[in-house]
């Protein structure tokens, strides 16, 4: 209810100001100046037409001031519009989207790490009249606010969030900037964080930490491989031990491998039966 009452009061105040503007603009002095301006246009025709008629492009709007006050009807354009000489002045407003490259900002993060952050802001004018009447330089003000918002947003987050949650931070910045610049007739369409540069000492520490983590993972993988290989060898030995024929075939395969790889070596194979005899004798003594 309080917000509604404040809005109603603001509307009433704006209506009263509009009424005052009309009274002042329609006073005796204002009417005389307007009549003199029309007389000048008529006397100097057709040359005055080159001064009175102006053209704005499709992406532009013209905000007209008559005797220092905004002309009713809002911004003009696109196309041709008419102004009175000597008493009318106008300002062109470009409605196209602009890109602002925020220079690198030195920011102290929440966990006391100094980083350098830069970003890109895409914005445009969505209300030409407000952007001229409510702020001296809407573009300059938006750029200064973008720098301040970037520093404040980064200063409230730890380093790991800045590095891993860029999209979330960009969205929060866009919402904050858009709310602040709405009173200036500016619409912030997008904010993108370009780069986060860390100190050299911190980069070295993070690189050493990442290398240590990779080495630890490699050792774990190697240990798991050896464990699986030992299990497979144990199962193979159990199978070979249960079958004398399998042991004989393995013996012959080993001899074949040795003769293929070591051609200069002479191998005198021991009969497998003799080996089996000794194995049985040892088992009987046990």
UniProtKB/TrEMBL annotation:
SMART domains (alphabetical): PHB (SM00244)
Domain called Band: residue spans: 51-210
Annotated transmembrane regions: 32-56
Predominant location: membrane
Compartments in which it is found: Membrane
InterPro entries assigned to the protein according to its UniProt record, in alphabetical order: Band-7_stomatin-like, Band_7, Band_7/SPFH_dom_sf, Band_7/stomatin-like_CS, Stomatin_HflK_fam
UniProtKB keywords: Membrane, Transmembrane, Transmembrane helix
A single GO cellular-component term on record: plasma membrane
Family membership: Belongs to the band 7/mec-2 family.
Protein name per Swiss-Prot or TrEMBL: Band 7 protein AGAP004871
Native organism taxonomy: Eukaryota, Metazoa, Ecdysozoa, Arthropoda, Hexapoda
Gene field: LOC105360773
């Amino acid at each position: 209810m309080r917000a509604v009452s404040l809005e109603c009061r603001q509307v009433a105040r704006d209506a009263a100001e509009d009424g005052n503007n009309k009274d002042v603009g329609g006073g005796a002095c204002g009417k005389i100046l307007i009549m003199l301006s029309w007389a000048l246009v008529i006397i100097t025709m057709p040359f005055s037409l080159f001064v009175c008629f102006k053209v704005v492009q499709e992406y532009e709007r013209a905000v007209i001031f008559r005797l220092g006050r905004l002309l009713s009807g809002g911004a003009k354009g696109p196309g041709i519009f008419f102004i009175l000489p000597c008493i009318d002045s106008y300002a062109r407003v470009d409605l196209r989207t602009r890109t602002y490259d925020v220079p690198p900002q030195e920011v102290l993060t929440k966990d006391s790490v100094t980083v350098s952050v830069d970003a890109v802001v895409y914005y445009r004018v969505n209300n030409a009249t407000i952007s001229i009447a409510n702020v001296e330089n809407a573009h300059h003000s938006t750029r200064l606010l973008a720098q301040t918002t970037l520093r404040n947003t980064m200063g409230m987050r730890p380093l790991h969030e800045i590095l891993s949650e860029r999209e979330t931070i960009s969205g929060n910045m866009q919402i904050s900037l858009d709310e602040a610049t709405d009173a200036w007739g500016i619409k912030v369409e997008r904010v993108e964080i370009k780069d986060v540069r860390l100190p050299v000492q911190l980069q070295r520490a993070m690189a050493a930490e990442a290398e240590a983590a990779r080495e630890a993972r490699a050792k774990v993988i190697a240990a798991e491989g050896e464990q699986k290989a030992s299990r497979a060898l144990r199962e193979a030995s159990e199978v070979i031990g249960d079958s004398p024929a399998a042991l004989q075939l393995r013996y012959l395969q080993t001899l074949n491998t040795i003769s293929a790889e070591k051609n200069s070596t002479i191998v005198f194979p021991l009969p497998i039966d003799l080996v089996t005899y000794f194995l049985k004798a040892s088992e009987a003594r046990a």
